[in-house]
Amino acid sequence: MGHLVRSAIQTPVRDVKMNSREIALICIFAALYAIGVVFLAPFSFLPIQVRIADALLPLSIVFGMPVVIGLSLGTFIANTLNPVGNLGPIDIFGGTVANFIATFVAWKICRSNKVPFIVGIGCQIVIVSVIVGTYLSYLLGSTIIAGIGYLFIGTFLAVGILGSLLVVIIKNRIEAIGIEN
Predict the structure, then answer these.
(1) Which runs of consecutive H residues, i.e. helices, occur in the chain?
(2) pLDDT tens sequence across 74-123
(3) CA angle, 136 as apex, 95 and 62 as ends, to 5°?
């Protein structure tokens, strides 16, 4: 066992290089998400919720890993600062993991531009609805079907509709001004 620990300590982290643009994007998206959720707290928490800040999730398709990390960090912060009623570590870590998986999967699926971005957004809706809906139904004492169903409606509105519009607008602006991703 000692050799495993020693090996892990001595093994350098491979290719973890971030430039200032990526670090800035992580900070911007973390702040935008946390502020959006906390500021709109009455809509952001409990079984029936429409997290307007979830409209940022599809931007992982456009900006990649900085959005994945930034929104995961923002989720952790927002769920920790929950002003409506703290649901504890299950909500803090569950929501963070759900958004990390959702943004990472959509980015991986759509990064080659061979798969339409709407497929990645559909995956995000399903992932967030199932993970968060399941643990919220447990925490709040409702059925799993109700938990997932309520979350699906709010996530569809925020991620599916608002997020899709945001992706289209930002992709068009990036192409119009010639910024490389």
Answers:
(1) 2-10, 20-39, 41-44, 60-63, 65-80, 89-110, 117-140, 144-155, 164-177
(2) 999 999 998 777 788 999 999 999 999 999 999 999 998 899 999 999 99
(3) 30
